[in-house]
Model the fold of this input.
Amino acid sequence: MAQIEQSSGGKKKKGAQKKMAIHVDFTPMVDMNMLLITFFMLCTTMIKSQTLSISLPTNEKVEQKDLQKAKESEAVTLILDTTYDDKGAVKDNVIYYYFGQPLYEKNGDKITSSSMLVSKFEGNTGKELNGIRKILHNRNKDVLDQVEAEKEKWRNKQITEEQFQEAAKKIRNNSELTRPVVIIKPLADASWESVIAALDEMQINQISRYQIGIPSPEDIGMLEAMPEYQKAHAGDKK
Amino acid sequence: MGKVKIKRKSTLIDMTAMSDVTVLLLTFFMLTSTFLQKEPVTVITPSSVSEIKVPTSNVVNVLVSPQGQVFLSINGDSDPDNAEKWGTEAMRGEALRTVAADYKAKTGRDPGITNVDILKFQKNASFGVPIEKMHEFLSLDQTKQDAFLGQTANKPVVFGSLKPSDIGVPFKDIVYKDEAGNQIVTNQFQMWMRAIYNSDNPNMGEAIKKGEGIAVKSDRGTKYETIQHVLDNLQTIRMNKFSVMTALKTEAD
Done:
């Protein structure tokens, strides 16, 4: 491990001190350290997970008239549905949506057709928006345009980040703009992933007013009349 | 012919520099890391654009397995000055004592939690068994506990009266009468959450009020009805602000 070498010089002057070179072999030390590093690397989490905060209304009964504050023209209802493959893994997350009060035609008790539409979580390709994001974006255009203008100022260093956040918050809560009220209604089968994705779209599209609700019997009736829904759930066990 | 003399060269390499580097790396990892929490079920959280980090102190992690079993993990105050009063272990012990007393008051049955149980409970990162079976569960050794919680549906593990259906904090209704004689329905999950909220640690109550004190964690593929059940219980006890654990969204998503 450690050895002391005498400098093997040829002739030596008498009385001169012997020069000692000390070699310590660090190889085992390095080995041990490497092992420890490997252990720490495997046993630790470097990235902390993120959180998304949610506020739900209380379960206490709220007066009916308070509930229906949202203007009909502003309401957007998203119904989330998920299909699973044979192994129980998520196959597809689908969104059924309608604006305002739904319109539907009835044949007896059965709803035959409605104003319900279908979309998906697609995100954007480059600057092009797709799927539900595009629909929500168009609904919230007033707010997004103003936020974008503020962001431009921030990019050009005219305002600081705090000022931008402040301004964005003001715009999001400005009641003079037409802002949508989104009601997210996950079906019992909807995956957690799709609920989070829907909440995420609210953040992306700067929508400040949204809530999580339960699908009404009409919603279910309209869903069952949708050819897309029928097709997706054709193989389901009854 | 003169022999060609091969010069013997020393093969010693100076490892000092290498050692320096490894020690530095080691120090870095030791200081920056937090250990992976042992969790009874592995879940892959959904991704979102939110960039708020999960707090590590004053937070209750509510882990919901795809089957709907609920595991709780209590993290107390991180301030070392408060460790004795409000630290993680102190809070866990306090919560267990409160719930055991609460359970006895409401049902008349004593769960029989001993001081040894409390000491063992404080060391466990997360828990998820009914309070009436807590004593039996804590009497098992660590490997048996893990085997019990980590069992799969096709290989059931049974220890004494601990059955596979005993995994997870139960949501079974507990009906009792308050002082005024009104019937009140609660369950063990609500009792735990209340015990944590009303603990001596004021920072915990504050965090729960702000919505940072409760972190719900569940798998991507878990059905909403499973989680809604948990959320509904939180709403009932007026903890309607909480956070949901997500992973950071990557470009591909």
Q: What stands out?
A: Chain B touches chain A through 59 residues (CB under 8 Å). Residues 47-248 of chain B form one domain.
